[in-house]
C-alpha cells in the first residue's frame, strides 16, 4: 500500500504524526483530531493500526518525561471502571451501528464539557465567596473540624467513587469503540484541578497502559501488521520531534491558558462525531 500513497497523503500523515506527539506531551485533545484526520486519508484498518502505533511511540516519550508527575494512586483506582467500560464498549460494538456509536460519543463528550464547566464555575464561586468572607472581620479561628470542612468545600468532588466509576467507565467505553477516550479523561483530570504537569503525567501513564492492553488484540485482529509498522517507522521521527516540542511548550504554558485550550480541543473533537 505504501508505494501507492500520494504526496498529499504523506503530508497529511506527517500532520497526524505531529498531532500524536503533541497530544502526548502537551495537548491531549489533539489525539482525537489526529484520529479523525488519519481515518480520512487511510483505509479504516490501516488507520486504526497506524494511529495506535504512533500514539504508543508518543507514549514512550510522555511517560519518561512525566515519570515523576503522574498520580498513580488515581490510576489504580480507575482500573476497575475502565475495564468495565472496555467490556461494555465491546458489547456495544456488536449491537449498534457505526453512525449511532459515533453520535453517542459526541453527545457524551459535549455533556462532559458542560458538566465540567458548570462544576468549575460553582467551585470558583465558592472560593470567591470564601475569600470575601475572609476579608471581613471574623471571629476567633475555627476549630480543626471547621477548617477541614472549609477545605473540603473548595475541593472538587470528582475524586469520589461514583465520579471515578462514571468517568473511568466512559473512558474505557469510548476508547474501545472509537479511540476517543482522551477527551473523557481530559475532562475528568481537568475537573480534578491537576496542575499542568500532573495532568499530562497522569494522562500519559493512563493511555500508555491502556494502549499496551489493546496492542495484543490489535495484532490478533490484523490492525497492526507489516504495513502499519512500516508506516509508523517512517512517521516516528515526526512523532518524537513534536513530542519533545510539546514537552517544552508544556513547561512554559500557564494554567489559565492550558485549561481553556483543553476544553476547546474537546469540543472541536466532539462536533464532527455528531454528523
From TrEMBL:
What is the membrane topology listed in the Swiss-Prot or TrEMBL record?
Answer: Multi-pass membrane protein
Which cellular compartments is it found in?
Answer: Cell membrane
- Annotated region (Disordered) at 126-154
Q: Which residues cross the membrane?
A: 48-66, 78-96, 102-118, 198-217, 257-274
Where is this chain compositionally biased, Low complexity type? 144-154
Sorted keywords for this record are: Cell membrane, Membrane, Transmembrane, Transmembrane helix, Transport
Chief subcellular site? membrane
Q: Which family does it belong to?
A: Belongs to the 4-toluene sulfonate uptake permease (TSUP) (TC 2.A.102) family.
Protein's UniProt name: Probable membrane transporter protein
Organism this protein belongs to = Actinomyces naeslundii
